[in-house]
Specification:
- Strand 1 (62-66) and strand 2 form a beta hairpin.
- Helix 8 packs parallel to helix 9 (243-256), helix 13 (346-367) packs parallel to helix 15 and helix 14 (402-414) crosses helix 15.
- 37% of the residues lie in helices and 15% in strands.
- It has 2 domains: 2-92 and 349-454, Aspartate Aminotransferase, domain 1 (Alpha-Beta Complex); 95-341, Type I PLP-dependent aspartate aminotransferase-like (Major domain) (Aspartate Aminotransferase, domain 2), CATH 3.40.640.
- The radius of gyration is 22 Å and the shape is globular.
- By secondary structure, the chain is an alpha/beta fold.
- The chain contains 15 helices and 17 strands.
- The chain has helices at 2-9, 12-16, 28-40, 95-105, 116-127, 141-156, 196-199, 210-219, 243-256, 275-280, 306-309, 328-341, 346-367, 402-414, 435-452; strands at 62-66, 69-72, 77-80, 134-138, 160-165, 177-178, 185-186, 188-189, 202-206, 224-229, 259-263, 286-289, 300-304, 373-377, 380-384, 417-418, 427-428.
- The structure holds pyridoxal-5'-phosphate (PLP).
- It catalyses: (S)-4-amino-5-oxopentanoate = 5-aminolevulinate.
- It is found in: Cytoplasm.
- Its main location: cytoplasm.
C-alpha cells in the first residue's frame, strides 16, 4: 500500500534512491489525504510551495501544532522551523493568543463595522513604531503590498515601480514580474495571466547594484512612483543587504520624488518590533506588514505618515477596501501576539538563542570543510550550500546546490525536524524553541550534513 502510494505521488527518481540515513517515516495517511486533495485543488494544495515539488515525498498533512512542535496525519512528531512561514514567532497555539481568540470569538466573528479591537491593535503598533503615523488593516501580505503600490502611484501621480530580482511581494499582477536580460529592463511576467502592459510598468534590477539603480532613475526620469524592496530579502534565500545600500535607496528616492516602500511582511516584528526599518534606522515612506502581525490569523497592513495615508479612501482618492479587514478575531490574535513581543528582552533572548544555534552549526560545517554556510539575522536563518562568505544577490545562488538541500530535507524529516520544503526558503526560530529542542535539532543537522557531503 505505502509503496504504491509513494510511487504515485512522489517523483519516481526519489523512490529509486534509497535513503542514505534513517528509514523514511510513514507518510501513509498524508499520502491518502494528498490523493484526495488532488481531486479538489490544483496540485492538491492551496498555496504552491506546500506541494513538496522540490523535496522528497508527499506533503505532510498537519493535524496539530503546539509550542515548537507539529504532528502530522501519521502521528509523526516534528520540531518546526517553518512556523507557518513566519507568523508564529511565539510558536504554535500560544496560550495567550489562543485564550484571547476564544474570548473574542464568543461575541461573534465579523460585523463589517468598526470595533475597539482595531483601535487597540493599531495603538499597540503605532505607539511602538516611530516610522509610521497611520495605517490600514487588510487580510494578507499580498493585499498590503498591492495597496501600498496603488497608494504610491496615487500619491506621486506616476505609474512605474522599481523592484528587485530575488524579492517576493505576494502574487499581485504588478509584482509577479522578473528581470529581463540587461542591466535595467522592463520586467517580464513571471506568471501566465499577467498582462504584458502590467509588466511594462515594473522595472526590475538586481539587488545590491548601485549602477543599475542609477541607470533606472536616469532612463525613467520622473516616471518612477516607488522603489519596493524587502529590506531583509528572505523569500529567495536570505540576501542580506548592507545598510549603505538601503540608505542609497532612501537617498535616490528622496532626490527623485519617488517613495521608498519597505515590504516588511516577513521582517516586520521579526528582527525587532520595528522590523528592518528599526534595525537599520532607515525611514521608508510606506511600510507593509503581514505574517506575525496576525498571530497566525489572516492580517496584513500598510502604514505611512498621516500625510501620505491621507490619500487613502475615504479621506483621499486612492480606493482600497475589505469586507473582512480588521476582522475582530484576527485583531485579537494580533493584539495577544504583539503584546508578548513588547515584553522586555523578548527580541534579545530570541535573537541570542538563534545566534548560538547558527554559530554551532557553522562551526561544525567549517571544521569539516563542508561547502555550507548559515546566513542569519534576528531569528531568521538560511542554509546555503556555498563557500561564498556572503550572498546579497539572487544570481549568486547556485541552483544545483538545491539538490543538496533536497537530501538534507529528507534526512531532517526522518529525524523529526520540519523545514519549509524548499532550499530557497528561510527557517524561523520562535520563543517556543528551547535549548533541548535546539540541541536535538543540531544533532539532526550534523548527521544530515554528514550524509549530504558523504558522496
Ligand atoms: C509572505 C510575503 C508576502 C505575501 O504575503 P501573503 O500573506 O502570503 O499574501 C509579501 N511580501 C513578503 C516580503 C512576504 O514575505
Amino acid at each position: 500500500m505505502l509503496d504504491s502510494i509513494k510511487k504515485m505521488f512522489s517523483g519516481d527518481e526519489d523512490v529509486a534512491v534509497s535513503t542514505t540515513g534513517k528509514p523514511d517515516i510513514s507518510r501513509e495517511k498524508s499520502a491518502e489525504l494528498y490523493a484526495k486533495a488532488k481531486t479538489f485543488f490544483p496540485g492538491g494544495v492551496n498555496s504552491p510551495v506546500r506541494a513538496f515539488k522540490s523535496v522528497y515525498g508527499t506533503p505532510l498533512f498537519i493535524k496539530k501544532g503546539d509550542g515548537c512542535r507539529l504532528w502530522d496525519a501519521d502521528d509523526n512528531e516534528f520540531i518546526d522551523f517553518c512556523c507557518s512561514w513566519g507568523p508564529l514567532i511565539l510558536g504554535h497555539n500560544h496560550p495567550k493568543v489562543k485564550d484571547k481568540v476564544i474570548e473574542v470569538m464568543q461575541n461573534g466573528m465579523s460585523f463589517g463595522a468598526p470595533t475597539a479591537l482595531e483601535n487597540e491593535l493599531a495603538e499597540l503598533i503605532l505607539k511602538n513604531n516611530k516610522f509610521i503615523e497611520k495605517l490600514r488593516f487588510v487580510s494578507s501580505g499580498t493585499e498590503a503590498v498591492m495597496s501600498a503600490i496603488r497608494l504610491a502611484r496615487g500619491y506621486t501621480k506616476r505609474d512605474k515601480i522599481l523592484k528587485f530580482e530575488g524579492c517576493y511581494h505576494g502574487h499581485s499582477d504588478s509584482l509577479l514580474v522578473k528581470a529581463g536580460s540587461g542591466l535595467v529592463t522592463f520586467g517580464e511576467t513571471s506568471s501566465a495571466g499577467v498582462p504584458k502592459s502590467f509588466a511594462d510598468e515594473t522595472i526590475v534590477i538586481g539587488l545590491n547594484d548601485v549602477d543599475a539603480l542609477n541607470k533606472a532613475f536616469a532612463d525613467f526620469k520622473g516616471q518612477i512612483a516607488a522603489i519596493i524592496i524587502e529590506p531583509i530579502p528572505a523569500n529567495n534565500g536570505l540576501l542580506l543587504q548592507s545598510k549603505e545600500y538601503l540608505q542609497t535607496l532612501r537617498d535616490v528616492c528622496t532626490a527623485n520624488g519617488a517613495l521608498l516602500i519597505f515590504d516588511e511582511v516577513i521582517s516586520g516584528f521579526r528582527v525587532g518590533f520595528e522590523g528592518a526599518a528599526g534595525h537599520y534606522q532607515i525611514k521608508p515612506d510606506i511600510i507593509t506588514y503581514g505574517k506575525i502581525i496576525g498571530g497566525g490569523l489572516p492580517v496584513g497592513m500598510y502604514g505611512a505618515s498621516a500625510e501620505i495615508m491621507g490619500h487613502v479612501s475615504p479621506d483621499g482618492g486612492v480606493y482600497q477596501a475589505g469586507t473582512l479587514s480588521g476582522n475582530p478575531v484576527a485583531m485579537a490574535a494580533g493584539i495577544a501576539q504583539l503584546t508578548e513581543l513588547l515584553k522586555s528582552s523578548f527580541y534579545k533572548d530570541l535573537n541570542n538563542k538563534t545566534q548560538e544555534f547558527v554559530d554551532a552549526i557553522q562551526r561544525f560545517a567549517t571544521a569539516r570543510s563542508y561547502k555550507f554556510k548559515v546566513f542569519s539575522i534576528g531569528s531568521i536563518f538560511w542554509f546555503a550550500f556555498t563557500d561564498k562568505a556572503s550572498i546579497s544577490n539572487a544570481d549568486e545562488i547556485d541552483p544545483a546546490s538545491m539538490e543538496k538541500f533536497k537530501v538534507m530535507h529528507r534526512e531532517l524529516i526522518n529525524r523529526g525536524i520540519y523545514f519549509g520544503p524548499s532550499g530557497y526558503e528561510v527557517g524561523f526560530i520562535s520563543s517556543a524553541h528551547n535549548k533541548i529542542d535546539l540541541e536535538k535539532t543540531k544533532r539532526a543537522i550534523f548527521d544530515s550534513l554528514d550524509l549530504v557531503f558523504k558522496k
